[in-house]
Design goal:
The complex is a heterodimer of chains A (171) and B (424). Chain A has 171 residues and is of the alpha+beta class. Chain A has one domain (13-169). Chain A is built from 7 helices and 4 strands; from the N terminus they run αααββααβααβ. Chain A has a 4-stranded mixed sheet. Chain B is α/β, with parallel strands linked by helices and 424 residues long. A 7-stranded mixed sheet of chain B has the order 9-8-7-6-10-11-12. A 5-stranded mixed sheet of chain B has the order 1-2-4-3-5. In chain B, strand 7 (235-240) and strand 8 form a beta hairpin. Chain B is globular and about 60 Å long. The two termini of chain B are 36 Å apart. Classes of the chains: A alpha+beta (171), B alpha/beta (424).
Chain lengths: 171, 424
């Protein structure tokens, strides 16, 4: 019996995460106007908000695209928590929200593995210290039904006050 | 989708309050519609040498009570309809706390993280270039909003002066301290939420000392609200964020929680440990048996589905729109007092007002000064809302809107002869 592709945990989630972070570093370097990777690392070490913002945006988008290629149930990905500053709005740490038609154990397993690997890879490639990399990004899975009912993190996806950035969508 | 629902809620509350006030139909139509809406196309030279264009908006809803005031947001979802609704809300928010502003909101439809910092700066300066005659310390005062910050505000101030406008720090709020920003801005919204909560406890004859508090959302608003409530003697027994929800019957030492979040937790509560604490499902924080519940995370958290299970005596809305319209009635039926967002989380715009006042007077107040003035202004606003609710026999939310709408209507009516000229 053939196993549907979306139910297969990839052979190397680590390679996927490494590739996502490498590409994100180049993106953040360009957008931040850094002359070199080392210059970007220095800005990241100083916790420069702009550099961190571009890096988390690109890491989120790359990871979402890679995981979505493995699981067709993923429809959209949003990044919640890049600093906003409304005169009355709240803010949150960075959270990558994957919106799915239906949650599966296989996807949860991939997400757990990504969350486990990401801090170490960020430390190695981006040079982030342990504190910054440990909670650089949380990855959460939300069902479309929860978005419709504004339940839990599903409410964040359609938020008017603190709208998250859409980082990937299935065409 | 969710946004539409929130705007529906706001419209419902506005209609309810306006009907209760029995407003003159002409005045109702006048204050219900924006005075001016501007849509512009902003050309931006991109880093790769190409040219891109972006749509920008500014809706000036009301200037009946003073200059227009409201943030500028950068987001892919920005459109005229969204900006129009948010501008109206700013009018009511400024009016309910009785600061001399009207309401406005602006935005640019863009993905800010797809643009480099240099491109964003050019986009911001282009937006100011198109809007400039309509901005100014006595005309329309922008502030940060979604995906804009003090750096963007600094570009706006600079662009205005580059364009020959009188150099005035008061033309924008939310600036860095070095350019005339105000002390206390970080704490402002949370401090206001705590003041509204303490005020509610006292109005209900409950001594704040030892009262139990649950805070949903331990970010910029919730963490400060928790700190100030803890400082006032309340027992913060539960806190939550996107990572987890924590409960401790004896109450948390909020300073230790904050220390964890800003240090080892890197922005999150997860990983915090102390004696007597346990983790609970995140959704359960809304239904804990506490004296005060502060939903300070997201909109639409208390719905018709879970409102019946809420056991708090008082809900103080730290977030915008955490309670759905349908849930309000259920909460009222259970005798739960809801201090609405429009007043509870107005501390941010109040300190924006303080920044403007300091800039106009070339002063810089101390932190103590800012906090004392914020407490006094918020307490007065809460008193007025509670008194209106008692007099009119309605909820605090309806009372807040009634108070705000009546203030704007009164000012608009007093200035009626000048208003038609403004559009022309």
């Amino acid at each position: 019996m053939a196993i549907p592709l979306e139910n297969v945990v990839p052979v190397s989630v680590e390679d996927t995460v490494r590739d996502a972070v490498c590409k994100a570093m180049e993106y953040a370097r360009q957008k931040s106007g850094c002359a070199s990777g080392a210059a970007l690392q220095a800005r990241l070490a100083a916790r420069d908000e702009w550099a961190m913002g571009y890096l988390s945006y690109a890491v989120a988008g790359n990871i979402a695209a890679s995981v979505a290629a493995l699981d067709q149930r993923i429809q959209e990905a949003h990044l919640l928590g890049l600093e906003g500053g409304d005169e009355g709005a709240a803010s949150h740490p960075a959270v990558l929200i994957l919106t799915v038609t239906c949650r599966t154990a296989a996807l949860d397993s991939i997400v757990a593995r990504v969350t486990e690997i990401l801090p170490r890879v960020l430390g190695e490639i981006a040079g982030l210290d342990q504190e910054s990399s440990a909670c650089f990004m949380d990855v959460e899975v939300v069902e479309e039904a929860d978005v419709g009912m504004r339940k839990g993190l599903g409410a964040a996806v359609g938020s008017l006050w603190t709208p998250p950035l859409k980082v990937w969508a299935r065409k | 989708m969710a946004g539409t629902s929130l705007l529906d809620t706001v419209t419902s509350v506005f209609e309810q309050a306006a009907s209760k006030l029995n407003l003159d139909p002409g005045v109702r139509a006048l204050i219900g519609s924006p005075e001016r809406e501007i849509a512009v196309t902003i050309p931006v030279a991109m880093d790769d040498g190409g040219l891109a264009t972006f749509r920008g908006y500014r809706v000036q809803h009301s200037s009946a009570r003073g200059p227009y005031k409201g943030g500028i947001r950068y987001d892919t979802g920005v459109d005229l309809e969204e900006v129009r609704a948010l501008a109206a809300l700013m009018t009511w928010k400024c009016a309910v706390v009785d600061i001399p502003y009207g309401g406005a909101k602006g935005g640019i439809c863009c993905d800010p993280k797809a643009l480099s910092k240099r491109e964003l700066e050019r986009l911001t300066r282009g937006y100011v270039n198109m809007m400039d005659p309509l901005f100014g310390p006595q005309v329309d005062i922008p502030a940060p909003d979604v995906n804009t910050d003090e750096t963007v505000m600094s570009w706006i101030v600079d662009e205005r002066s580059e364009r020959g406008a009188l150099w005035s720090r008061a033309s924008v709020t939310g600036k860095p301290l070095v350019l005339g920003g105000s002390r206390g801005r970080r704490e402002a919204t949370g401090r206001g939420v705590a003041t509204a909560a303490l005020h509610a406890l006292r109005r209900l004859g409950m001594d704040p000392v030892g009262r139990t508090v649950a805070v949903q959302g331990f970010g910029k608003v919730g963490s400060w609200a928790a700190k100030f409530l803890h400082d006032a003697g309340c027992k913060v027994v539960a806190v939550s964020d996107v990572s987890c929800a924590l409960f401790r019957e004896e109450g948390f030492d909020v300073s230790l929680l904050t220390e964890h979040v800003s240090g080892a937790g890197a922005g999150l509560l997860q990983g915090y440990e102390c004696e007597g604490m346990c983790e609970i499902p995140r959704a359960d924080i809304l239904t804990l048996d506490v004296d005060v519940l502060v939903p300070a995370a997201l909109e639409g958290q208390i719905t018709a589905d879970n409102a019946g299970a809420v056991k708090a005596r008082i809900i103080v809305e730290g977030a915008n729109g955490p309670t759905e319209f349908a849930a309000d009635e259920i909460l009222a039926g259970h005798g739960i007092t809801v201090v609405p967002d429009i007043v509870a989380n107005a501390g941010g715009v109040v300190v924006s007002y303080f920044e403007w006042v300091q800039n106009l007077q070339c002063l810089q107040w101390s932190m103590d000064d800012v906090m004392a003035r914020l407490d006094a202004l918020m307490t007065k606003a809460c008193d007025e809302v509670w008194n209106t609710a008692a007099r009119e026999g309605c909820s605090l939310r309806t009372a807040a809107y009634m108070l705000a709408i009546s203030r704007v209507a009164e000012a608009a009516a007093a200035r009626f002869s000048s208003i038609p000229r403004r559009g022309g």
